[in-house]
Amino acid sequence: MSRLPSKKLLDDLYSRFVLNGPEEEKQSLNGLMFLVESAHWYYEDDVVENDQTLKSLSFREFTCLLFNNSDVLRPYAANMDKILRDFFAYKSRVPVAGAIILDETYERCLLVKGWKRSSRWSFPRGKKNTNEEDDVCAVREVLEETGFDVSKMLKKEEYIEFTFEGKKRVRLYIVVGVRDDTVFAPLTKKEISQIAWHRLDGLESGFAGLKLFMVAPFLASLKSWMSSKHLMSPLSIDKPLKPPLCVWSAVTTKIKTTTTTKTEIRRYNVKPWKQSVKVNKSAILPALGICS
Q1: CA 128, 132, 137 angle in degrees (round to 5)?
Q2: 192 has which bridge partners?
Q3: What is the full DSSP assignment across 195-236?
Q4: CA dihedral defined by 195, 201, 202, 206, rounded to 10 degrees?
Q5: What residues form DSSP beta bridges with 171?
Q6: For 106, 113, 232, 265, which has the most beta carbons within 10 A of its beta carbon?
Q7: Where in the chain is the domain with CATH 3.90.79.10?
Q8: pLDDT category of residue 266 using cuts at 50, 70 and 90
Q9: Are 193 and 146 a contacting pair, CB within 8 Å?
Q10: The pLDDT of residue 238
Q11: Residue 204: which pLDDT band, with cuts at 50, 70 and 90?
């Protein structure tokens, strides 16, 4: 039977990721929650993976345990519903940047699918860090989700931007001419389950009922951009459509992961092995509105 993390383990995660996290993240409660989220990712990706007697926890479960284990955070555990609700609402407004990657024929684009079973296909993209430029975020997120560096191919002036539901801005830079035999593989754990080349005309027709909520809004603008650059694909929708060309799948590479020696970039930004072991409770108090 799986067991909950011990007090010692929770103390260690709290010290590494929260108390000794970046100072700029501790200036607000939402910033603090990003540190808690990083601690949760580390717990799931590394701690549980290396000790399968530990229970896998949802973000809510982990946050409740971490708050109740901390003398400083415990008084706020009673307001957990509101804290999480406000945090998720805040996350939904954080700007997103990524890339629309086209192959050499301009017939296909690269899409990624999230880790969860309910995940949809999307262009590789992710949330901006504090004070991060859009193009820098796009390069970082594409590298993390596909293992491909677009920094030398990305042009800052070539992008499509949408604002969803009047609050979330998504900017996707257009990167063209990527070879279809390029090796792709995510550098993060448990974030991407599949990477595949998709025919553009297939996406426009809703091929095989794919979930394209985060793709469809960009297709018309992409088509207009390609037309203006005289890059229109010669493919016709009248020709038979083939399934997406999968170039990486977590299922097919599961066996290989036990022997690979490639270093993976973690989903969390805080590197705990570089954090100070000094515990400074006063550093976190301003973020919680507590007078030291």
Answers
A1: 55
A2: 114
A3: EEEEEHHHHHTTGGG---TTTHHHHHHHHHHHHHTT------
A4: 110
A5: 97, 161
A6: 113
A7: 96-258
A8: very low
A9: no
A10: 53
A11: confident
In the predicted model, is pLDDT for residue 18 greater than 90? Answer: yes
Asked whether residue 287 carries a pLDDT value surpassing 70, the answer given is no
Q: Which structure tokens are listed for 150? A: 């677009």
For the chain, counts of helices (H) and of strands (E): 8, 8
CA 78 to mean position of chain CA atoms:
29
Q: How confident is the model at residue 281 (pLDDT cuts 50, 70, 90)?
A: very low
Q: For residue 292, what pLDDT band results from cuts at 50, 70 and 90?
A: very low
Residue type, 8: K
Which CATH superfamily groups domain 96-258?
Answer: Nucleoside Triphosphate Pyrophosphohydrolase (3.90.79.10)
d(CA 50, CA 39): 15
Q: Can you give the pTM of this predicted structure?
A: 0.79
Q: What architecture (CATH level 2) is domain 7-91+271-288?
A: Orthogonal Bundle (1.10)
Q: Considering the chain, tell me which residue range(s) the CATH 1.10.10.1050 domain(s) occupy.
A: 7-91+271-288
